[in-house]
């Protein structure tokens, strides 16, 4: 080896050593700052406890405050990490700090590894205590009973539309919507370690997942039986010991249940996403960028829907969703679930809601909450 080559290798080694030393110093500073933030969070908890009666319920988790912190982190991000990745890191820091005050208990629909479980972790972070339930109404009951702080339920999919069970539960519940999560849904075909991949004759999945992957399944497994189950995590869990079966589920389910991903991103629509709602008992103050959800019962008369929506149009309020469901109080009567931009405490929104209330048989405010940050 020449002297020039030796010098070049030495120079590269010196540069790498200098960079690693710099990283070590930065890591030390990051650790110090995270500890300082956690200590500050503990002090916040003590202040809250000291200024409330002993029997008062302390709200450690503040959805509007977390949304503001995440938005600020994204606004101040200079790269090279993406805004989404920066927000995810801040979410985990806040989750860990909140766990020092009081770990949040969260109920979610489906088994561990389901997309709803993934949405719960995305919103509350990995330090939250998550509990699975097999039915959406069970999630509502747990939150109403106070057994958990919040619940996470699916409400609509960009491909298959609304989740009617969730909307129906709001009609009988006094719970509030405290937040929302938007999750990009990627479906994978999973197999177990005993699967004969050339002889797959049965594919398990949630009915919506089967619908969202219809074209891919028809193209690749036209003769395989498609078996609908309660959720995709259940589909993944059933594979153990079935040599001729596969399942459609996310990567989290594959990791949890020790499965192999045979084919990735098999959904027919590449922008397939699902929206989830965070349900709780508290009313959420404005965060600065909010949405409001209401359910309205209309009198059965001509032009009812036009009369209902006209105030929103006149005041230039952005409607993000209008969904119709049959009323339980009369044949051929309907209720409308409406989402729109803004907070119920905003003077303009308050004025519109008062006007809408005069035009309908009944209006129920489901909640105002921060718009999904990412």
Automatic annotation (TrEMBL):
It catalyses: prephenate + H(+) = 3-phenylpyruvate + CO2 + H2O; chorismate = prephenate. Keywords: Amino-acid biosynthesis, Aromatic amino acid biosynthesis, Cytoplasm, Isomerase, Lyase, Multifunctional enzyme, Phenylalanine biosynthesis. It is found in: Cytoplasm. Pathway: Metabolic intermediate biosynthesis; prephenate biosynthesis; prephenate from chorismate: step 1/1; Amino-acid biosynthesis; L-phenylalanine biosynthesis; phenylpyruvate from prephenate: step 1/1. Residues 10-105 form the Chorismate mutase domain. SMART domains: CM_2 (SM00830). Residues 293-370 form the ACT domain. Its EC number is 4.2.1.51, 5.4.99.5. Residues 105-281 form the Prephenate dehydratase domain. It holds the Pfam family CM_2. InterPro entries: ACT-like_dom_sf (IPR045865), ACT_dom (IPR002912), Chor_mutase/pphenate_deHydtase (IPR008242), Chorismate_II_sf (IPR036263), CM_dom_sf (IPR036979), CM_II_prokaryot (IPR002701), G/b/e-P-prot_chorismate_mutase (IPR010957), Preph_deHydtase (IPR001086). Catalyzes the Claisen rearrangement of chorismate to prephenate and the decarboxylation/dehydration of prephenate to phenylpyruvate. This is Bifunctional chorismate mutase/prephenate dehydratase.
């Amino acid at each position: 080896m020449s002297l020039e080559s030796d010098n070049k290798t030495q120079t590269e080694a010196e540069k790498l050593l200098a960079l690693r030393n710099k990283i070590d110093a930065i890591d030390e500073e990051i650790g110090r700052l995270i500890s300082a933030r956690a200590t500050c969070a503990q002090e916040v908890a003590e202040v809250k406890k000291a200024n409330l009666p002993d029997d008062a319920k302390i709200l450690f988790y503040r959805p509007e405050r977390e949304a503001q912190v995440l938005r600020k982190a994204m606004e101040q991000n200079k790269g090279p990490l993406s805004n989404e990745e920066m927000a995810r890191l801040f979410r985990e820091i806040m989750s860990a700090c909140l766990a020092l005050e009081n770990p949040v208990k969260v109920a979610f629909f489906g088994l561990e590894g389901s997309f709803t479980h993934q949405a719960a972790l995305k919103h509350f972070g990995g330090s939250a205590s998550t509990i699975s339930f097999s039915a959406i109404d069970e999630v509502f009951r747990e939150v109403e009973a106070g057994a958990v702080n919040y619940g996470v339920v699916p409400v609509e999919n960009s491909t298959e539309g609304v989740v009617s069970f969730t909307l129906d539960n709001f009609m009988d519940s006094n719970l509030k919507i405290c937040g929302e999560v938007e999750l990009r849904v990627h479906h994978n075909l999973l197999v177990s370690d005993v699967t004969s991949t050339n002889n797959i004759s049965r594919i398990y999945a949630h009915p919506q997942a089967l619908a969202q992957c219809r074209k891919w399944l028809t193209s690749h497994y036209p003769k395989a039986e498609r078996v609908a189950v309660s959720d995709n995590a259940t589909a993944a869990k059933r594979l153990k010991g079935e040599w001729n079966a596969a399942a459609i589920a996310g990567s989290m389910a594959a990791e949890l249940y020790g499965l192999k991903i045979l084919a990735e991103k098999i959904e027919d629509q590449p922008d397939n996403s699902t929206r989830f709602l965070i349900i709780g008992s508290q009313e959420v103050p404005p965060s600065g960028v909010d949405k409001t959800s209401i359910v309205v019962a209309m009198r059965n008369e001509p032009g009812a829907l036009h009369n209902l929506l006209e105030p929103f149009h006149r005041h230039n309020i952005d409607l993000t969703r209008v969904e119709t469901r049959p009323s339980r109080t009369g044949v051929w009567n309907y209720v409308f679930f409406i989402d729109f931009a803004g907070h119920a405490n905003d003077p303009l929104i308050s004025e519109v809601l008062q006007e809408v209330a005069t035009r309908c048989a009944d209006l129920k405010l489901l909640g105002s909450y921060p718009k999904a940050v990412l």
